[in-house]
Sequence to fold (400 residues):
Amino acid sequence: MINVAVLGFGTVGSGVVELIEMNQAHITAKLENQLNVKYILDIRDFPDSPYKDKFVKDFSVIENDPDIKVVAEVIGGATFAYDYTVRALKAGKSVVTSNKELVAQKGYELLQLAKEHNVNYFFEASVGGGIPLIRPMHRCMAANEVTEVYGILNGTTNFILTKMIEENMPFAEALKTAQELGYAEADPTADVEGIDACRKICILSSLAFGHHVYPKDVYAEGISKISLDDVAIADENGYAIKLIGQAENYGSKIKAMVSPALVPHTSLLSSVKDVFNSVLMRGNAVGDVFLCGRGAGKLPTASAVVADILDAAKHFEFLKGWGWQDEVANRVLSQEELDFSWYLRVENTREELLAQYPDADVVFDENGVIAAITKVENNGEHQKKQKNLKVLSAIRVLQL
Ligand code: HSE
Fold:
C-alpha cells in the first residue's frame, strides 16, 4: 500500500480525495498497488465528512510519518504551502502540487531541494488544470527545441469573456458564476488582472526555455478594462477577445507576457470557450502541438494532481532532467522592445487617427468614435503615437 497525505481540503483537495476513491480499482491497476489517503491536513473542522478520521491540523504528524511517501500540496499561496513543501522534501517525501503561485515563485529552489533529497516535485496541475501540458512538453517534445508557447491559461477569465460575448452577461455576474463553479482563485483579482495567467506562463517559459522566469519580470494585464463595445466590434470584424499568455525564445532574450488580445476567428484558440484552456507549443521538429481541455474546476484539476501522485509513487527517485536552471538576469524583453499590432478605439476623427497611423484599417466609425487595427510596429513607437490620441481602448492583436 502507498500512503499519501493531502494538504488542504478546498475545491482541489476534496477533488483529489474523491477521485482516489471514485477510481480506486483503476488506480490500483495502474499502480499495481493500493493508494491510500492516510492524512488530510486542514485548519478547519469537517465533523460530517466521511473522511473525518483522516484529518490532522499539525503538519509534523505527516512530516514524521515514514509511511508517507507522497504529499499532495493543494493549499495554494506561498506561505504555509512553501514551508510544508520544504519540510516534506527534506523529510524524503515527494511533493505534487497544483500551486502555480509557489511553482512560479520558488520552482527552481524547490526543484533543487527535491534533487538534493532524491525525491520528486511534480506540478502538472499548476498549468491548464486537467490538460496534460507539463509532461508532454518535458517528455514527448524532449527532442525539440521549443521556440514558442502561447494560449489561454485562465479558465475564469475565459468563462467570463464567453458569457460576455455569447450571453451579453455583465462582467460581475459572470465572475460570480465562475466563483460558484469553483473556477476562481480565493482572491479573483489574480484571475481578472492576469496574475494567475502570468504565473502559468512563467512556469511554461521556465520549462520550455530552461531557466527560471519570475512573475516580477513578466508584463501582465487582465480583462477588467474590456468593454462589451470592444467585444462586439472585434466579433463583427472576425476576432474574439481572449486573455493570452505568450512566450517566445529569441536566444539570449525571451518574450514572456500576458494580455488580452484579438484572436482571429480562423485560429483554433478563438473557439476555445467557457472554462476551457488551450495551449499551442511550437517545437523545431514537431511543429505546432495544440492541447485543449478544462483549465480549472474540482475534478479536472484533481485529475492532474492524482496523475502526479501515481507518477511520484512509481518513481521514488528524482526524475533525471526534470525542471530547469536558475534565472538569467535581464532575459525578458520589455514591452517597449516588442512589436505589436493594436486594436484602438479612440474618440478622434478619422483624419486624426490616420495622421498617426496612415496604414491602419478603420473597422468602426460612428458618432465620433473610431476603431482601427494598426500594422505591426515597435511598441515604443506605438506608445508615442497613442499619446497623441484620445484612446478609449487599446488591445493587442495576436500575431500567429
Ligand atoms: N483560477 C484558475 C483559473 C484555476 O481560473 O484558471 C486554475 O488554475
The domain at 134-294 is CATH 3.30.360.10 (Dihydrodipicolinate Reductase; domain 2). The pocket of L-homoserine is lined by residues 129, 154-156, 183-185, 191, 196, 295-296 (CB under 6 Å).
